[in-house]
Amino acid sequence: MILASQDLELSAIMARERARQRDGIELIPSENYVSAAVLEAMGSILTNKYSEGYPGRRYYGGNEHIDEIERLAQRRARDLFHVPHVNVQPYSGSPANLAVYLATCEPGAVIMGQNLTDGGHLTHGWKVSATGIFYRSVPYHVRPDGLIDLDEVRRLAHEARPRLIWCGATAYVREMPFAQFAEIADEVGAYLAADIAHIAGLVAGGAHPSPVGHAHIVTTTTHKTLRGPRGAMIMVTDRGLAKDRQLPEKVDRAIFPGLQGGPHDHTTAAIAVALNEASRPEFRDYSAAIVANARALARELIRMGFTLVTGGTDNHMLLVDLTPDGAGRGVLMQEALDEVGITANKNTIPGEPSSAFYPSGVRLGTPAATTRGMREAEMAQIGGWMAQVREEIRKFLLPEDRVARNRALKEFRATIGASPRLKAIGEEVRVLCRRFPVPGIS
Ligand SMILES: Cc1ncc(COP(=O)(O)O)c(C=O)c1O
């Protein structure tokens, strides 16, 4: 209310975004709806404070309460993930990952990670990322069946002798083989870092195996399935301590003063709230429901004739392969789904025949819809709508030539914008959404 009376322009934009979040179905696997308690901590007076350093060792006065907050967040993270050391200060997942390089590698060191177009993250050594510019990246891939090619990982590791190996992904639908990665890392003496940004909530809730008994370092964002604010954590495991006693100190120094200045204390408080929520029995039910929903959506899509990478899912995410309708059609599906109020994102598929900008797949995830209380019946409904949307856009082509493609996209957008069928589906989506309120949005 105060914002609306003081800044009409911004509050009007925020009202439109609030309505978008409320009236549509969010299927982007890295998004979620935080609780009202997390929002309250994020939007608090804690944003006023500077606190460079760590609890008990700050470069500013007046940090007695901030110290308590950060220690609380650390303790909750240690208890939830069963690790001896955690740093809760990374501003987000990407700087957390960069700090791992700083803590474990000399500039120019050899590192390995899952190739971006095979589902890995930019920060696992992709060529345009700082991690691929300042370190020598040797990427590994998935096999044509969509599973990580562990034979290739082993062969490349023995050839390249990396200092650091990443496991964990942005677009991977099967259980992450942490034990096999640890075996390979041990064979070549590398640090193993597990990036569980996507699956942290499933790990916390027992719906996905934990990397903690296998990796030396675990990084995660605190948003996504963990359902906290936008932030991140770096954890050092007992295996990490056994490999390098100084690892906790190296990680802490990499974050501050290596990469960052003052921590975002309002975010630290909101992380503490989210970790507390994730330690409750209801969160176990939530994470089990995320996976059950993803499997239900997968079943329905297959029944409707869609092709899924690996034929299904073990986690919160699905990758739809649209190549049976033609290469590069992810963008058409994403935009047509947007038109009916279903938000998803275009994504590359294994052996992508098109490009990263015009990929042939769509990535879907169930964490946000599950938070609203949607369950398997609603997943079946969503699968049905997706099949109708696919039918509606099947006739459109996406030419390879740039000029012809731009013309085709323009025509496509005009046609879907005026499609009575898509309008009718959009109305059905809104009716469903009204039954499932979003936390923090009335
Ligand atoms: C596996 C993985 N790691 C790291 C990140 C980076 O997180 P952020 O966007 O907060 O920098 C992401 C974000 O998509 C991710 O999927």
3D structure, described in words:
The chain has 442 residues and is of the alpha/beta class. The protein has 2 domains: 40-278, Type I PLP-dependent aspartate aminotransferase-like (Major domain) (Aspartate Aminotransferase, domain 2, 3-Layer(aba) Sandwich); 289-434, Aspartate Aminotransferase, domain 1 (Alpha-Beta Complex). It has 18 helices and 15 strands. It has a 7-stranded mixed sheet, with helices on both faces. The chain has a 4-stranded antiparallel sheet with strand order 11-12-15-14. The longest helix has 23 residues, at 281-303. It is globular. The mean pLDDT is 97. Pyridoxal-5'-phosphate binds at residues 30, 92-94, 97, 121, 123, 168-170, 195, 197-198, 221.
Fill in the keyword field for this structure.
442 residues; alpha/beta; Aspartate Aminotransferase, domain 2; Aspartate Aminotransferase, domain 1; seven-stranded mixed sheet; four-stranded antiparallel sheet; 15 strands; 47% helix; binds pyridoxal-5'-phosphate
End-to-end separation in angstroms reads 13 Å
Q: How much is the average pLDDT?
A: 97
Ligand catalogue: pyridoxal-5'-phosphate
What's the CATH class label of the largest domain?
Answer: Alpha Beta
> Largest beta sheet, briefly?
7 strands, mixed
> Percent of residues in helical segments?
40-55%
Overall spatial form: globular
Side by side, the strands of the main sheet go 4-10-9-8-7-5-6
- Continuous helix count: 18
Unreliable residue stretches? none
Class based on secondary structure composition and strand pairing: alpha/beta
Got a strand count?
15
Cα gyration radius (Å): 22 Å
The third-level CATH topology of the largest domain is: Aspartate Aminotransferase, domain 2
Query: What share of residues are in beta strands?
Result: 5-15%
Task: Work out the count of structural domains.
Answer: 2
Question: So, CATH architecture of the largest domain?
Answer: 3-Layer(aba) Sandwich
- CATH H-level name of the largest domain... which superfamily? Type I PLP-dependent aspartate aminotransferase-like (Major domain)
